[in-house]
């Protein structure tokens, strides 16, 4: 079997008396979509924080592409090929969609200690940016709009285009459906499905329709621990999962 | 040895003065998220208020009342008219607007009382000195300042730890959103906290009168040191303000007391004094830089 | 297009100003205009880090002052024919003193920035203020260079082909250097570096997530801004023929900051208009009363509270330019 893209072993994070991540181990294999589900407070956001490097774990290791990145900074991980979307989108609100993506392209194209040439007319940045907006189906007429004037759905899609600009090997998607309407969710699901086979994905999501439609494997997180990992069918049939999670969600 | 003891007492005295200013400033920082450069103006207004009343009536008690009243009223007007509109603004706007307030208050004092420094007589019962440490006679008025400052620190501790208002203040400094969510009248809380800060700053100004001269610009000299205290102690933390104030007070006083003397060993007297004064003035800023490099959020950070 | 025409008119008026002053029989006018340009220069450099990088430095006068003192100290050693530390000879050549001022200010900004940029928010404002105060007290204590009283520069620096004793020539020189700086800053802001800086101001977390470490970019901008302020200070010292620690006082830092906001933060010409407005206001109010600060203070408060975007926003509205 191919070596995993991401491998988490024995990860622990405590906040005071609360153990948010409790000896957690899981992996993400090349090309797969691995969904992470769990009730509120299960420690999903804390886990994402440790994977991207915003939160330092108390114990355990995170290996990305075979390298130990447990102590690596956020930019260092991103440069290695880690892409992440935020639960609450993080964009440059005063800029246009095109300018946002062009900046992400620029960040991937090497250092930015270039002080003279105008960046906003540089086709080496704009052409790939347009291609990325095409890839995520961002509507042409909205590309010159400022982020501050965009709908929640547009922002989510735009953020995905920015993430893809980094040519990621692994996508950490923190609730990509959150805040989206029903039709927008379906479109986002289609967009993510179209990416399948490219970067591997770790998908944190509450929208069960999307999870069951997309995920190859699902891990259920409760109180910072993985109580089960398996295919959609296996997870559905797992009594412990039903008790801890699905029943509550369905209620 | 006697000199060291005296310098330590001087440091303690400067420290409690700084604490009176820093306590209000740090709470306003911590709870409202406002940088108030004009906090030093309240100190100045308190000092002028007391000096004017003392000269007119000769009564130390009336002077105390006058100074507190002047600082308190000025503070409340300042909060109502300007600062209230700054809570939701970014730091840059706060710095600039309160910078404008400093210009206003300094010039107002010039207009009302002129540029000449005013001397304030010591209260009659505190003109002498006391030998609390054998062989070290120490002015009793300075001991009074230390006592008042420590009493205020104790009172603040009780207020913050033991009362409902104190509970809200503590919660406000660490979880601002939560206090808002509790349905507390946040505006009233803000006004109370600001008023308390203004009174403490005024009190510091009143007590400073007989020790330093009362003059325009006195607020800024001590304000910048107060900022150093607040940042060293950790923004929003009263305990940090006390610790930072005593640290800054003692370090500053000891440097001023001993560095020129040490330099005189290597330089001629006038150069040594000038350079010594400069180096000791720089001392507290070096201290602050060091603290921030090790603990970027101060020694007792209030916000998680 | 309207913008370009307005810019051309502004530039022509600036060049013609000395003639205008003579025609109006205002002999002091050109000198005042020179000092306004120096202030505008310092404010422009601060605008790079505040307006485009979101770094609220409350100690920018330190670099302004270092630039001025570089000219003063080099002059003093030139006058006494005694090299600094027995090594570096003094000079009165502006072509040497100006780059030297930028170098010294840039070095100071590199050291102070490297340390200060480890903090952010209120702590950053305060630590930049603290470092500036340190330098202020250092120069107060340097008796060899006048200490508290400051030092006089008996003659302005020499430039081949120019005579800076003629205030008109000094004015044009300052105008030329300022325009060159503004052009440079305009290119920087539009470059890849400028895009990154702008991104850091708007959302530092987003910048990390696309693989950019903010620190080196912030530091580079901080150093560039320090160098600009150093050049401005060097020119100011030449105009005043005097340097004292007052030039790096915290009030001066506040004043430079006020100019940026008054003119319009993050705009190219805002600081220039802000400097004109502030000095003009001081001049006008000073004519009304000696207590002009009592009016200026509340004006500042009102501008901050209600005047979003400063003078530049007003100008753009008048020109019919829509700006983000």
Top keywords for this entry?
heterotrimer, A: 251 residues, alpha/beta, Rossmann fold, 2 domains, six-stranded mixed sheet, 10 strands, B: 304 residues, mainly alpha, two-stranded antiparallel ribbon, 11 helices, 2 strands, 75% helix, 3% strand
Description:
The complex is a heterotrimer of chains A (251), B (304) and C (324). Chain A is built from nine helices and ten strands. Chain A is α/β, with parallel strands linked by helices and 251 residues long. Chain B is globular and about 60 Å long. The model of chain B has no long low-confidence stretch (mean pLDDT 86). Chain C has 324 residues and is mostly helical. Chain C is 72% helix and 1% strand. Classes of the chains: A alpha/beta (251), B mainly alpha (304), C mainly alpha (324). The interface between A and C is medium-sized, with 36 and 25 residues.
For the secondary structure, the number of strands of chain B is: 2
Chain pair with largest interface = B-C, 50 and 43 residues
Oligomer: heterotrimer
Q: What does the largest sheet of chain A look like?
A: 6 strands, mixed
Q: Report strand order across the widest sheet of chain A.
A: 6-7-8-3-9-10
Largest sheet of chain B: 2 strands, antiparallel
Q: Which percent range describes the beta-strand content of chain A? A: 15-25%
Distance between the termini of chain A: 39 Å
What structural class should be given to the helix and strand makeup of chain B?
A: mainly alpha
In the CATH hierarchy, the architecture of the largest domain in chain A is 3-Layer(aba) Sandwich
Q: Output the number of helix runs of chain B.
A: 11
């Amino acid at each position: 079997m191919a070596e995993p893209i991401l491998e988490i072993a024995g990860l622990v994070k405590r906040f005071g008396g609360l153990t948010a991540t409790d000896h957690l181990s899981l992996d993400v294999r090349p090309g797969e979509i691995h969904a992470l589900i769990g009730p509120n407070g299960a420690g999903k956001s804390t886990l994402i924080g440790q994977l991207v490097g915003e939160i330092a774990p108390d114990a355990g290791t995170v290996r990305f592409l075979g390298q130990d990145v447990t102590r690596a900074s956020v930019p260092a991980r991103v440069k290695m090929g880690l892409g992440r979307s935020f639960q609450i989108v993080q964009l440059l609100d005063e800029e246009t969609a095109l300018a946002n993506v062009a900046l992400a392209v620029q960040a991937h194209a090497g250092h930015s200690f270039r002080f003279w040439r105008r960046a906003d007319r540089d086709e080496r940045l704009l052409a790939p940016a347009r291609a990325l907006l095409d890839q995520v189906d961002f509507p042409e007429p909205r590309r010159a709009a400022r982020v501050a004037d965009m709908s929640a759905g547009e922002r989510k899609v735009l953020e995905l285009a920015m993430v893809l600009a980094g040519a990621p090997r692994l996508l950490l998607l923190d609730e990509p459906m959150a805040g989206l309407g029903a039709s927008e969710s379906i479109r986002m699901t289609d967009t993510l499905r179209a990416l399948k086979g490219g970067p591997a994905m770790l998908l944190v999501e509450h929208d069960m329709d999307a999870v069951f439609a997309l995920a190859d494997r699902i891990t259920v997180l409760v109180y910072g621990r993985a109580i089960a990992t398996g295919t959609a069918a296996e997870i559905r049939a797992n009594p412990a999962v039903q008790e801890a999670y699905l029943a509550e969600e369905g209620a | 040895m006697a000199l060291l003891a005296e310098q330590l007492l001087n440091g303690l005295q400067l420290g409690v003065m700084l604490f009176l200013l820093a306590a209000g400033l740090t709470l306003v920082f911590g709870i409202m998220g406002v940088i108030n450069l004009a906090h030093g103006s309240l100190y100045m207004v308190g000092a002028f208020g007391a000096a004017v009343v003392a000269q007119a009536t000769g009564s130390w008690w009336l002077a105390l009342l006058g100074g507190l009243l002047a600082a308190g009223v000025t503070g409340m007007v300042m909060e109502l008219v300007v600062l209230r509109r700054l809570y939701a603004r970014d730091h840059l706007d706060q710095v600039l607007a309160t910078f404008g307030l400093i210009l206003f208050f300094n010039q107002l004092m010039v207009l009302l009382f002129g540029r000449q420094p005013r001397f304030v007589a010591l209260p009659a019962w505190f003109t002498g000195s006391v030998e609390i440490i054998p062989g070290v006679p120490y002015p009793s008025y300075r001991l009074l300042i230390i006592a008042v400052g420590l009493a205020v620190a104790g009172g603040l501790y009780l207020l913050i730890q033991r009362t409902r208002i104190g509970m809200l203040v503590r919660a406000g400094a660490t979880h601002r959103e939560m206090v808002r969510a509790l349905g507390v009248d946040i505006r009233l809380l803000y006004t109370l906290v600001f008023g308390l800060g203004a009174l403490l700053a005024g009190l510091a100004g009143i007590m400073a009168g007989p020790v330093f001269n009362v003059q325009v610009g006195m607020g800024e000299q001590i304000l910048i040191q107060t900022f150093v205290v607040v940042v060293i102690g950790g923004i929003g933390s009263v305990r940090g303000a006390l610790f930072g104030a005593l640290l800054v007070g003692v370090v500053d006083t000891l440097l001023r007391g001993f560095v020129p003397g040490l330099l005189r060993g290597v330089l001629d007297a006038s150069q040594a004094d000038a350079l010594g004064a400069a180096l000791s003035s720089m001392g507290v800023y070096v201290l602050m830089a060091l603290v921030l490099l090790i603990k970027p959020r101060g020694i007792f950070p209030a916000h998680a | 297009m309207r913008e370009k025409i307005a810019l051309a008119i502004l530039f022509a008026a600036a060049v013609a100003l000395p003639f205008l002053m003579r025609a109006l029989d205002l002999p002091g006018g050109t000198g005042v205009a020179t000092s306004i340009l120096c202030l505008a220069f310092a404010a422009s450099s601060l605008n790079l880090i505040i307006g485009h990088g979101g770094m609220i430095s409350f100690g920018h006068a330190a670099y302004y002052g270092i630039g001025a003192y570089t000219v003063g100290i080099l002059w003093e050693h030139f006058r006494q024919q005694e090299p600094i530390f027995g090594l570096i000879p003094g000079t009165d050549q502006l072509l040497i003193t100006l780059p030297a001022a930028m170098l010294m200010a840039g070095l100071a900004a590199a050291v102070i920035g490297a340390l200060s940029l480890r903090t952010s928010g209120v702590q950053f404002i305060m630590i930049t203020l603290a470092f500036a105060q340190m330098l202020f007290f250092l120069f107060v204590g340097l008796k060899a260079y006048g200490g508290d009283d400051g030092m006089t520069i008996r003659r302005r620096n020499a430039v081949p082909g120019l005579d800076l004793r003629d205030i008109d020539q000094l004015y044009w020189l300052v105008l030329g250097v300022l325009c060159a700086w503004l052009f440079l800053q305009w290119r920087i802001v539009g470059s890849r570096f400028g895009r990154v800086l702008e991104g850091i101001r708007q959302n530092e977390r987003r910048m990390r997530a696309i693989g950019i470490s903010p620190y080196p970019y912030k530091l580079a901008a901080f150093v560039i801004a320090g160098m600009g302020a150093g050049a401005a200070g060097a020119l100011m010292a030449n105009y005043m023929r005097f340097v004292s620690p007052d030039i790096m006082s915290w009030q001066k830092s506040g004043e430079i900051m006020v100019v940026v906001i008054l003119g319009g933060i993050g705009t190219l010409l805002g600081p220039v208009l802000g400097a004109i407005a502030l000095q003009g206001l001081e001049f006008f109010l000073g004519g009304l009363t000696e207590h002009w600060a009592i009016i200026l203070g509340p004006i500042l408060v009102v501008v901050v509270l209600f005047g979003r975007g400063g003078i530049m926003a007003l100008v753009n509205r008048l020109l019919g330019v829509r700006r983000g």
